[in-house]
Specification:
It is globular and about 45 Å long. Helix 1 crosses helix 3, helix 2 packs across helix 3 and helix 4 packs antiparallel against helix 5. It is mostly helical.
Amino acid sequence: MKRGRWRGTWGLAAVLLGLPALGQLEEPPRGAPQYSCFEAAREGSGVSESLAAQLCQGASSDAPARCFLRAREGGFLAEPQALQLCQYAEPSDDPAACFLKARTSSFLDEPQILQLCRPPLAEIQNLCPYGP
C-alpha cells in the first residue's frame, strides 16, 4: 500500500473509531485492537471503511471482524445482520457458530437467533441507547 494511502486510511479509521488525536500518527500504535479489527474486516473482503469502523468500534480484539467475515462467507447473513450479530464479539464468543447451530437445529426465526447469539455487551447497548 502506498505510504500516503496508508496514512489516509489510518486517519479515517482513527476518526471513525473515535481516536482523532491518533489520526496524526504515521503508523497505528501497538495495542490498538480496534484498528487491527478494522484491518481484518477490510482485508480482502470488500467491506467499506465505514462498516468496518462501525463493526470494530470498542473492539478489544479482531474477534468482531473474524465473526463478521465468517457470517458473510457462506452468504448466510446480509451485512446489516452480520454486523448486528458480530459487533462487540470477544475472542471467547463465537456468535457465527451459535447462529449456524441454532439455524440448523431449532425452529427460531432469524431475528430470534440474532438475539440469542449476540454477544452480551451488544444486548446491554440496546438497553442503554445513545442520545435522548
